[in-house]
Amino acid sequence: MQKISALLITYNEEKNIKRFLDDADYADEIILVDSYSTDRTIEIAKTYPKVKLFQREFTNFSDQKNFAIQQASYEWITFFDADEHIPASLKEEILNTIKSNTSADAYYVYRKFYFKNKVLNYSGMQNDKAIRVFKKSKNRYKNNRLVHELIQCDGVVSKLRNKLDHYTYSSSEEYRNKLTSYSKLRAQELRMKNLKPNFFHFQVKPAYRFFNHYILRLGFLDGKEGYVISKLHADSVKNRYVFLNKIYEAEASQLINKNA
């Protein structure tokens, strides 16, 4: 059986860390890269003998995850998030897949999306998936993505049959705060592309995002939660351009002060 490195990046994951570490009992080592948590994340992690702890300032998700990959000792890697739970059926499938000397170099895992402890079957979440199992030598996160990071696989990508449980947030405010942090990082990405926001970005794109989640992706079938999720994602799209505009304003102000 080939050995496995289970990777995780954290910041104040006290409420999730124990579940993750218990789920990762299949791994031969657990690499935890923490962004200087101020809660009990580190205290809890240190009670697990397989954990190898690194603390590092957070710049963006891709950079932090690529650093974690570099610390892995073994070729096969699993890289789940702290708010994801690995059911026994998925864990067994992962182990059997690696044991079978598969020809694939990376695997997508579909996610069952929970919001306020309710499963959302629609709202754009029905086909949600991410690469969570892969070979170290064939995969890296794309450096041009600061948020919603994507694996770039130099090989064959397949998918696993069993789903993981994705426990997102227990309140709308908690989810809004997370989306806001994503919007700020996305704004930085857009600035690097020199995008100038206009009416289309501020009004049309957010409206379409709501329509896409709530109507096209059947969010209305998820009831109140479907509406809330659709609205939060629409607000997140608008916020990215608000933050982008603030970046340009700050740059213009610095230029004026420099020339004064």
Automatic annotation (TrEMBL):
Glycosyltransferase 2-like domain ranges (all copies): 5-140
Superkingdom of source: Bacteria
Pfam families: Glycos_transf_2 (PF00535)
Family: Belongs to the glycosyltransferase 2 family. WaaE/KdtX subfamily.
Name of the protein in question: Glycosyltransferase family 2 protein
Protein's organism: Faecalibacter bovis
